[in-house]
Design goal:
This protein is of the alpha/beta class. The protein has two domains: about 120 residues, 3-Layer(aba) Sandwich (Rossmann fold), CATH 3.40.50; about 170 residues, 2-Layer Sandwich (Dihydrodipicolinate Reductase, domain 2). The chain contains ten helices and 15 strands. The radius of gyration is 20 Å and the shape is globular. It starts with a strand and ends with a strand. The model has no long low-confidence stretch (mean pLDDT about 95).
């Protein structure tokens, strides 16, 4: 690989812009080309940094000065873009989800391994300060017996907001960071069941989605997910990830703080959350270190596939109304 790595950015939305900002701060990379379905949007990002612009992502991947690829496009394009990059023999970083089906994700992971090509999948929520604090404290709980995720997420549903569009994948494929954090705590799931409902629907778009899932893990451990995505300002509890073990419980609240509590509730300890910034910068550094052979992905391909295996089982459970078992 050259001393200064040429990067192709596929996408022109919020994440693509965040990655561009981080890459422009690095002396060892340059953005060679920006691709977007809108040439004007690609040009807007490319012109100030003297990069090429195109509305054909295949051309961006094929460019000889594009030594590595970053897929920051909308979800349905992740798998075909990643496949094209791997087949071209170029290291590729893909924003989650890797694919919108478990089968496609498994095939991409196998193809990357077979070709010896770096396939890095972004799971930056694993790098967030509160989650690292919670995860490092898990051994204090002893054997984990239960885990629960509860959240009410309000955000304006603009026409461009793909999270309110079912065409962009089942909820846990769209929000792969959620099962990613859960499985990072408890390992593989053994079964899953639940339901999902929508309101304010127009075609594939909606105004509110409510997801309720229950699952098992380990030796009789149980978990639950309650996630509400709404475009209307709605009162509800702050986001919380709670892990209960034989020695007490941990709660990560509002993505900012972590508490350790005894079983009887007589004592609660606030754990220090060290400030961390530039999660996309950390993700990019991990990708580049993996390419250079001086590091490895913080989210292994096995973890990425296991996360989507959980999402796939949840989708089938919701569709059938039955419990779905996951084999080891």
């Amino acid at each position: 690989m050259p001393t200064v790595l040429g990067i192709a950015i596929l996408g022109s939305g919020r994440v693509a812009r965040a990655r561009l900002r981080e890459l422009n701060e690095r002396p060892d990379t340059r953005v060679a080309v920006v691709a977007s379905h809108s040439f004007d949007r690609a040009y807007e990002l490319a012109f100030p940094i003297a990069a090429a612009a195109t509305d054909h992502w295949e051309e961006a991947i094929a460019r000889p000065d594009a030594n590595a690829i970053m897929v920051c496009s909308s979800n349905p394009y992740h798998a075909p873009m990643a496949r094209a990059a791997i087949e071209a023999g170029k290291p590729v970083s893909v924003d989650y989800p890797l694919a919108l089906s478990l089968g496609d994700a498994e095939q991409l992971a196998e193809l990357a391994r077979a070709r010896g090509v770096v396939l890095h999948v972004e799971h930056i929520e694993l790098l967030s300060a509160w989650f690292i604090t919670l995860r490092e404290a898990l051994p204090r709980l002893g054997r984990i017996r239960a885990i629960a995720w509860r959240n009410v997420s309000y955000r304006a549903a603009t026409p461009e907001d793909w999270t309110f569009d079912r065409a962009h994948g089942f909820s846990l494929f769209q929000q792969a960071s959620l099962p990613s954090r859960i499985l990072a705590c408890v390992g593989q799931a053994t079964w899953i069941e639940g339901e999902e409902s929508f309101s304010g629907e127009s075609g594939t778009r909606f105004a509110r989605r409510e997801t309720r899932l229950r699952f098992g893990f380990g030796d009789n451990g149980t978990g639950e997910i309650t996630d509400i995505l709404t475009s209307a300002e709605e009162a509800g509890p702050a986001a919380e990830l709670r892990v209960t073990g034989e020695n007490g419980a941990l709660a990560g609240r509002a993505h900012r703080e972590v508490w350790l509590a005894s079983h009887d509730g007589s004592a609660a300890e606030s754990l220090p959350v060290l400030p961390r910034s530039g999660l996309f910068g950390q993700d990019i550094a991990a990708f580049l270190d993996t390419i250079a052979g001086t590091g490895r992905p913080y989210a292994s391909l096995s973890h990425v596939v296991e996360t989507l295996r959980f999402a796939d089982a949840a989708e089938r459970a919701v569709q059938t109304g039955q419990r779905v078992r996951l084999s080891p």
